[in-house]
Write a structure and sequence with these properties.
The complex is a heterodimer of chains A (735) and B (251). Chain A has 735 residues and is of the alpha+beta class. In chain A, 21% of the residues lie in helices and 32% in strands. In chain A, helix 10 packs antiparallel against helix 11. The chains are: A alpha+beta (735), B alpha/beta (251).
Chain lengths: 735, 251
């Protein structure tokens, strides 16, 4: 398309042009008024006057020829495609995401004269849409307000219309927003917003967990009220059983609470109290029994990771007899305000004669059955110090203690003549969770003094860092040791005996201090009864006795998963969704770890082999991201072994849809409201052709401006004509 | 084969061995060492009293103890090998040397427990001079009277008041650091009540006779249990039992 036209100089704005023309017109009007009564040279004066005015005007305004070439193009239309995982919900034989892809194709055909900009929107604004984009790029939710703000703020041409492709269940504008609120939230762009509903008319028949809320933070041993919201869409749900279970490693899930939700008006809420006994990230499954006809069973359960904190560490300290070693540990534990200590010391045996009536004594019975049945789960850790399992009826509870440790409890066995083999623990269920094996045929302990030796793991372990920092690698001499066998699978020996050997071949040094991660719990074996020398001895003077606290702070801290005593931190890179790549980030706390090994195990009694990934050449404390591959739905525990140090652990959940799938109902009413208040149109996939086509725009691509005459010609003509006009006026008798 | 009991009993056999060679299970045993200050030595009549203290403890309780009498000098590093010492005497002591003051201060700063036993409470000169010297050792820690609810009255036996060879005052004075009574000052001649001579009690008990001696032994056992268990019997779990028993005793 080519067009010809003319224009005045573009140097001046309209006001200047108007003033110039106005002055010239006034001049001509005066001239006409002046010549009404004049006969001599009247015509010539008028002609030269008009010419002079014209040329002066042309000199000022400089008229020009304009020729331009251009084209008519379609208006820019922005298509915002819902990029939430919710669109992966099944919809008949397909999914809403596939229907959205079809909608984009059909929109491209329908609006062939428009320039379409297709974007995907989630929780954090917009990004270019691609039908083939991976599930990793999908977000949990979709926020239309943020998406429109992002479009509004972007540089370049603004769209003439926006088309929102979604199922309507948006994070914003919210479900309860009225017309005015929606208009305020979305009206900033000032263009019509059309909506295209990609969900089938009514949505699937579905009973689901719409939400799980906890009243406050989860604190170990304290009741936590969990509110479970249940929705029932196009189903007759009635009474729905609700179960909350904790996922454990190598164990069946532990039932925390169960109840029933009475569904009325397609909605129910049930509040269930749970008690999580172990601190750290704990994976909890909240599930409902699927009613018949449920088309989306995947959202009948949620896997929630609770980060359980501790108010105080609740610790059970049981000692078979009072000694200076027991005294040192008790005084240290009592001095720590973060420890809620429950202690039982055996102060009298059957052989003792107290020479008094029981009423004159301050002794209470050792409540062994009560402690190790009813109260056992309430403790974060138990310390067994120099107590004979058979003599004090502990034997019958060793299986419970084993279960307790595997379920996440902490166990420390501290040395003494009645510990380990001497305390009749060899061959028991408790031995199975100790870091060391016990051979009942061996002498229970050795009487010769020795100085424990750090192993390479002990030199690398964060758990002993406070002690190493304080004392270096010099340890006090110990007056003998319990006979400990070889380290069990998954154990790490931190101190060893310089001469005594362990293991069937007798080729390994005997462990003195060993740690073990077993099931969900942790255990420590300390095969000496002389660590009180770190608190009180000639050697302790130089450190003011702080060595004892440094040792036990590390041991108890590691047992309780205090991050300070882990070899590094372990975290998820983004949420874990089943079927997509899951990455873990490891941050070593000390440089020069060498190698990192991550072992990923599914929680529960799954027989699946753990996924093991190794990274070598780790020399700094820079974060390392390790791709663990695609995981199935479930709870997982990841153990990161950094160098020779004891492994750190992270429990997390992987869900199919998670929060995005908790409400499968489409919300066409919200889409209609959005369209109505912004002067747009709401359509479905089937009536997409009803969407209005925005008007075309004219776009100039080439424009030439050429002056009619050069400015000096106009000026010369103006001077000549003005001169002639002046001469004629003089001849005609005008001044 | 080594057993736990053999390890406990080994305490007798290793009585005079250096502490590093005490053996497994024996090193943490209660050991009433006698503090030697200057040229002072324990009155010969009471020399076996610490061993008797340990013997009574082993007989009556599950606690292991070393049935020996060891002297340890206030200015010797051996003072810092174990957290308990008894300072007994019957006459005023000379001012402590600087080394002795430093040794005792280190002992108490590390958390050691000391029982000061006045063998002649009637004169009180020993007790007064020890208090004077303790003000040099711990100038910031005054001597206070322990409440009758203090844990030393219930660590093993429920006792109403302290007694020794003499009836003495109905309370115990102490120097308390933090939450712990670290120096217990007795004006009852406790070692006198425990002293043995050729298989018999060495000294008569006044005014309560043998019954009072039994209460003195109970006090000694309680003090040993306090050294070994600190405030264990103050734990909440014991409170209802102890309240019931005390109420029954009053009836």
């Amino acid at each position: 398309m080519r067009e010809q036209s003319w224009a005045l100089s573009e140097d001046f704005g309209t006001p200047v042009v108007a003033v110039a023309l106005g002055v010239l017109l006034v001049w001509l009007a005066l001239l006409v008024w002046e010549l009404r009564t004049r006969e001599r040279f009247g015509v010539l004066i008028a002609v030269t006057g008009f010419l002079a005015a014209g040329f002066i005007g042309a000199t000022i305004l400089r008229p020009a020829h304009v020729s331009q070439r251009g084209s008519v193009v379609g208006s820019k239309v922005t298509v915002l495609v819902d990029g939430s995982r919710r669109l992966l919900l099944p919809d008949g034989d397909t999914t809403r995401r596939e229907r959205a892809a079809r909608a984009v194709k059909e929109l491209t055909e329908h609006l062939e004269h428009a320039r379409l900009e297709v974007l995907s929107f989630g929780q954090e604004g917009v990004r270019p849409y691609s039908e083939r984009s991976s599930q990793e790029e999908l977000s949990v939710d979709s926020d239309l307000v943020r998406a429109l703000d992002a479009v509004n703020d972007s540089a370049g041409e603004r769209p003439r219309a926006v088309i929102v492709v979604s199922d309507g269940r948006l994070a914003q504008p919210g479900e309860g927003a009225d017309d005015e609120a929606v208009k305020q939230a979305l009206g900033g762009l000032g263009v019509p917003i059309h909506t295209l509903n990609v969900a089938s008319a009514q949505g699937p028949k579905d009973a689901s967990i719409r939400g799980v809320r906890a009243a406050g933070a989860a604190v170990a041993h304290q009741a936590l009220s969990v509110t479970v919201e249940i929705g029932c869409h196009r189903l007759n749900c009635g009474s729905v059983p609700v179960t909350i279970r904790e996922m454990l490693r190598g164990e069946e899930p532990a039932l925390l609470a169960e109840g029933k939700a009475e569904v009325r008006d397609d909605h129910a809420t049930v509040e269930l109290p749970i008690v999580l006994e172990r601190a750290g990230p704990r994976v909890v499954e909240v599930s409902i029994a699927s009613p018949p006809g449920d088309e989306v069973p995947e959202n009948d359960s949620r896997l929630i990771t609770f980060n359980v904190t501790r108010d105080r560490i609740r610790l059970l300290h049981v000692a078979g007899r009072p000694t200076y070693d027991v005294r040192a540990l008790r005084m240290w534990l009592k001095a720590d305000s973060s420890v809620d200590l429950v202690a039982f010391f055996i102060l009298r045996t059957k052989e003792n004669n107290s020479m008094s009536d029981d009423s004159e004594m301050a002794l209470i019975p050792f409540p062994v059955d009560e402690l190790f049945t009813e109260h056992l789960p309430s403790f974060d850790a138990i310390v067994l110090q120099d107590i004979d399992a058979e003599e004090y009826q502990l034997s019958r509870h060793l299986k419970s203690i084993e279960t307790y440790v595997r379920a996440g409890g902490g166990l420390i066995m501290v040395g003494g003549p009645a510990s380990f083999i001497g305390g009749n623990y060899a061959g028991t269920r408790l031995e199975q969770v100790l870091p060391v094996s016990l051979d009942p045929g061996k002498e229970p302990f050795t009487l010769s003094g020795f100085v424990p030796r750090y192993t390479p793991a002990g030199l690398a372990a964060s758990v002993l860092r406070p002690l190493r920092t304080l004392l270096g690698i010099t340890l006090p001499e110990m007056p003998g040791a319990n006979t400990l066998g070889a380290a069990q699978a998954g154990s790490l020996v931190l101190w060893e005996h310089p001469t005594a050997k362990a293991g069937k071949a007798g080729d390994a040094a005997m462990p003195v201090l060993a740690l073990r991660e077993v099931g969900d719990g942790r255990s420590i074996a300390l095969g000496v009864d002389g660590t009180h020398r770190l608190a009180f001895s000639q050697q302790a003077v130089s450190s003011a006795g702080r060595g004892y606290g440094a040792l036990w702070e590390g041991l108890l801290g590691w047992l309780m998963r205090d991050p300070r005593y882990e070899a590094g931190s372990l975290e998820l890179v983004g949420p874990c969704f089943a079927g997509q790549s899951t990455k873990l980030r490891v941050v070593p706390l000390t440089p020069g770890a060498g190698a990192v090994e991550i072992e990923l195990t599914k929680l529960g009694t799954s027989s699946e082999k753990p996924i093991v990934k190794q990274v070598s050449g780790v020399t700094t404390t820079q974060p390392i991201e390790v791709d663990m591959g695609s995981l199935a739905v479930g709870g997982y525990t990841a153990k990161a072994k950094i160098g020779a140090a004891p492994p750190g652990r992270l429990d997390f959940a992987c869900e199919k849809g998670g929060e995005a799938w908790q409400d499968s109902r489409p919300d066409p009413a919200r889409l209609e409201r959005i369209a109505r208040v912004t002067q747009g149109k709401a359509v479905g996939l089937e009536d997409l052709s009803e969407l209005p086509t925005p008007p075309e725009s004219r776009v100039s691509v080439e424009r030439h401006v050429r002056p009619v005459l050069a400015p000096w010609v106009w000026a010369l003509a103006a001077v000549v004509s003005l001169g002639a006009h002046w001469l004629l006026r003089r001849r005609g008798g005008l001044t | 084969m080594l057993t736990r009991r053999s390890a406990l009993l080994s305490g007798v056999g290793i009585a005079f061995a250096p502490s590093a060679a005490l053996g497994f299970g024996g090193e943490g045993a209660f050991h009433p060492r006698v503090l030697k200050v200057g040229d002072g030595v324990l009155d010969p009549t009471r020399q076996e009293a610490p061993a008797r203290w340990a013997w009574e403890l082993v007989q009556r309780t599950s606690a292991p103890a070393r049935i020996v009498t060891n002297m340890v000098a206030a200015d010797h590093m051996d003072l810092l090998t174990e957290p308990f010492v008894v300072w007994a005497g019957d006459k005023a002591i000379e001012p402590l040397t600087r080394a002795e003051v430093r040794g005792l201060r280190q002992f108490l700063m590390l958390g050691g427990v000391m029982v000061v036993d006045d063998s002649a409470p009637a004169s009180g000169k020993f007790g007064e001079s020890v208090r004077r010297e303790l003000r040099r050792v711990l100038p910031e820690s005054p001597v206070v009277k322990l409440e009758d609810t203090h844990v030393i009255y219930k660590t093993y036996y429920i006792i109403d008041r302290p007694v020794g060879r003499e009836l003495g005052p109905a309370h115990v004075d102490a120097i308390v650091r933090g939450k712990n009574a670290q120096v217990l000052l007795l004006s009852h001649d406790l070692l006198g009540a425990l002293a043995r001579n050729q298989g018999a009690w060495a000294l008569p008990i006044e005014p309560g006779g043998e019954r009072q001696r039994q209460y003195a032994i109970r006090l000694a056992v309680n003090l040993a249990m306090y050294v070994l268990c600190s405030d264990y019997k103050d734990d909440q779990v014991h409170a209802p039992w102890l309240m019931r028993r005390r109420a029954r005793r009053r009836q």
